[in-house]
Write a structure and sequence with these properties.
The protein has 279 residues and is α+β, with helices and mostly antiparallel strands. It is 18% helix and 19% strand. The chain has six helices and seven strands, in the order H-H-H-E-E-E-H-E-E-H-E-E-H. It has helices at 8-11, 37-41, 71-84, 151-157, 207-220, 265-271; strands at residues 87-93, 112-118, 143-147, 162-167, 191-200, 238-251, 260-262. Strands 1, 2, 3, 4, 5, 6 and 7 form a seven-stranded antiparallel β-sheet that branches. It starts with 7 loop residues before the first helix and ends in an 8-residue tail after the last helix. Residues 135-260 form the CREG-like beta-barrel domain. Keywords: Signal. This is CREG-like beta-barrel domain-containing protein.
């Protein structure tokens, strides 16, 4: 879709909670160019980057400045979207053939399925000496409290990879029209899809890591205390796992005014630890 841009301003009001935040800009559907030295050292300057507020105030030139954001900005925004997300749409593949003890119809072997899953951005909160991960803290691998009985995690345990889609569409009523008279539009809001595989944390989970995971996850999902790993009387058995992100596809909003395309994952791993707020 080819439309205009200022809708994203208010939408991003919450994306400043964990670290300084940048606003999504726009560009056509285009191949991603590698990040340049300029990209990695400068920010889009027409936004208030106050780290102590959950609002983002555009400068007076916002409505006339239609230049696209850098890929650096878009990468940081994708990271912020993950940091603020509580749920996501997980897509996996049913095994083929369907296991004989499964209740899944055999005709669904090899088909995809989507489920909404709880998640939390816990990587930045893990101990600095965490040996349960080969990746640096803050890399942006979302954490799951996985249930053995859940379709998503039954499929990943059987070898399926996973994609996880995140969006800000529930906040459309907190946004502003693209221009006077234009209706509020979910399609103008950002979304991102993370591609990779599910990796359980090593067991037994080190005490410091377990404590950090519980604190982080329960801040987003207090009800999940009922099915924490090893909890007596829990309705289902569970385990800690993370999505190891291998590729990221970003849609900043309307094409023609927002960045849309594949983020550079190797550069992404360098960018995600930039800034404060636990990143």
């Amino acid at each position: 879709m080819m439309m205009a841009r200022p809708l994203i301003t208010t939408f991003f009001s919450a994306l400043v909670l964990l670290t300084h935040l940048l606003h999504v800009g726009a560009s056509p559907l285009a191949e991603q160019a590698p990040l340049t030295e300029t990209d990695t050292t400068t920010f889009d300057t027409h936004y208030n980057l106050d780290t102590d507020t959950d609002t983002l105030t555009p400068s007076s030139d916002l409505t006339t400045n239609l230049a696209p954001p850098s890929w650096f900005t878009s990468t940081l925004l994708a990271r912020r979207l993950l940091a603020l997300s509580r749920t996501g749409t997980a897509s996996t593949i049913f095994p083929s053939p369907i296991p004989p003890n499964s209740h899944t119809p055999p005709s669904l072997a090899g088909h995809s399925t989507t489920q909404t899953e709880y998640l939390a951005d816990c990587d930045p909160h893990l101990p600095a000496n965490d040996t349960s991960s080969e990746s640096p803290r803050g890399l942006g691998n979302p954490t799951f409290l996985a249930l053995h009985v859940a379709t998503t995690f039954r499929n990943t345990a059987a070898g399926s990879n996973i994609s996880l889609s995140l969006d800000w569409w529930d906040h459309v009523n907190d946004t502003s029209p693209l221009w006077p008279g234009f209706p509020l539009s979910e399609a103008g809001l950002p979304r991102v899809t993370l591609f990779g595989y599910v990796e359980p944390f090593e067991t037994p989970v080190p005490e410091a890591v377990e404590s950090a995971l519980r604190k982080c996850f329960l801040e987003k999902h207090p009800d999940a205390e009922a099915w924490l790993p090893g909890k007596e009387g829990a309705p289902h058995s569970s385990y800690w796992a993370r999505l190891r992100v291998e590729q990221v596809y970003w849609i900043g909003g309307f094409g023609g005014l927002q960045r849309i395309g594949w983020l550079n994952v190797s550069e992404r791993s360098k960018l995600l630890c930039i800034g404060g707020g636990g990143m």
